[in-house]
Amino acid sequence: MSVKSDDGGLAQLIEECLARYKLNFPDATPEEILLYRPRYMMLLRIQKRHEVYFSESTTSSGVSVSQILHIEILKFFTQGTLQASMKFAALANAVVHSRLNILPADYPPEHTREQIAIDFAFTPCQKTSKLIRIFAAPSNVESVLEAFNFTSQDPKDSDRNMKYLNFMKRTPSSDLSALFERAKAAALDGGSVTVLGVRLEDMELIERRHKESIAMAFTFFTHQFVLCIAREGFRVYQSWGAIGYGLNEYLTLNGTRLRNWTEAVEFLKAFKLLSRPQTQWSQAINNAYEYCFEINILELCGDGKPGNPIVPVYRPWVQVVEYKDVKASDVTKFTWS
Questions:
Q1: Alpha-helical segments (H) within the chain
Q2: DSSP type of residue 132
Q3: Which among 164, 150, 171 has a CA at the least distance from the CA of 210?
C-alpha cells in the first residue's frame, strides 16, 4: 500500500474549508475571511510533514489487523464527507439501539442531510475518536456501547461537568507512555494490535466555565485522539475542530500514515510535557501541542485570530481507554443491510 499526498489534494481541501467557513458564517466580511488564512498554512504544514513515500508490509498471513482498521476508516469516506456523516449517524443509531447490524431505517431522512453534516461532522475530535474506538472495540454490543459513551464534558450541562471535574480531581492521570510501551511490547513479542483512546482535558477551563460565563471567551486545549500500535509501527487518528482540520482532511494529508518507533519516542516525549500542569501556556507547551496534534495554538487562537485566546493557566488531565489484542473480527463486526 503506497500513499502520497499531492498539492491538488491540498488545494481541494483549502477550497472545501473556505466553503465550509462561508457556510457557517454567511455574513463574514472579506477581512474576517482573511483571518481564516492560518488554517490554510496549518494544512500546508501537515502535508509537508507527512509527505513521504512508504511501503506497508503485510504479515505472513496477509493484511495486518492495523491495516484492516485503517482500510475500514478510509472506506468510510469513499463517497465524500456528507455521505460519511450520514453513515456515521446510521451507525450511531444502530449502536444506541444495541445492534451491530446497520439497517436502512437507521439512516436519517434526506431532508435532514444539512443538519446531519453539522451534527456528525468529522472536525470535532470527540466524533473522530468515537468512530475509531467503536471500530476497535470487541465485537459485542456491551463493549461497543461502552466505547461509544466514552465522552468528555458537555458545555451545556453544568451539573454533569461539575461531577466530571470532581472525578478528575480525585482520579490520577493515566500514563500514556507506560500504556504505549506495554502495547509496543505486545506487538513486537506476540504480534497483537492495541488501540488506545486518549483524552487530554482542560481542567482549568471546565472549572471556570462552571463558575463564570467569561470562560466562554477562551479556547479549550482539550483534545481526544486514538493511537493504533502494531508490530509494523503506530498510527495517530485525530481531528481538531472547526478552525483546525477534519479526519477526512487528516487522512488526505497522510497524517494517519504509519509511523516508526523513533517517532513514537518523540511523540511520547512531547505528550509527557503536555501531561504536566504549568502556571501558564508557554512556547514549550505550544511546540509540544503542535508536534502531537498539528495545531499551533498561538497562531490560531488569540486577539485578531480565528479562535479565542487559550485559557491562561495550564491544568491538564489525561485518561486512556485501552483495547488490547484487537482482532480482524472486531474491526469488521458491523454489517450494513
A1: 7-24, 30-34, 37-50, 65-76, 81-96, 113-119, 125-136, 141-148, 158-170, 176-190, 203-211, 247-252, 261-274, 283-293, 297-300, 328-331
A2: H
A3: 164
In angstroms, rounded to a whole number, what is the distance separating the alpha carbons of residues 227 and 244? 19
**Rounded-to-integer distance, Cα 100 and Cα 331, Å:** 12
Q: How far apart are CA 321 and CA 12, in angstroms?
A: 35
pLDDT digits (tens, 9 = 90+) for 27-44: 666 655 555 556 666 777
Contact status, residue 150 vs residue 131, Cβ threshold 8 Å: no
Spatial neighbors of 74 by CB under 8 A, at least 6 apart, are 251
Rounded Cα–Cα distance for residues 7 and 88 (Å)? 28
How far is it, in rounded angstroms, from Cα 124 to Cα 117? 12
Closest of 269, 282, 266 to residue 49, by C-alpha: 266
Read off φ and ψ for residue 320, nearest 5 degrees.
Answer: -130, 130
Q: Nearest 10 degrees: CA dihedral of 123, 327, 147, 95?
A: 90
Question: For residues 1 and 91, what is the distance between their CA atoms, to the nearest angstrom?
Answer: 27
- Are β-strands 233-237 and 223-230 bridged in parallel, bridged antiparallel, or unpaired? antiparallel
Residues 6+ apart with CB under 8 A from 169: 203
- Each residue of 79-135: pLDDT tens digit? 888 899 999 999 999 999 999 999 999 999 988 888 888 888 888 999 999 999 999
- CA dist 159 and 330 (Å) reads 35
Paired residues of 224 in beta bridges: 199
CB 193 within 8 A of CB 229: yes
Q: What is the 3-state secondary structure (H, E, C) of 12-75?
A: HHHHHHHHHHHHHCCCCCHHHHHCCHHHHHHHHHHHHHHCCCCECCCECCECCHHHHHHHHHHH
Residue 255 and residue 16: Cα distance in Å, rounded?
A: 18
Cell of 273: 510535557
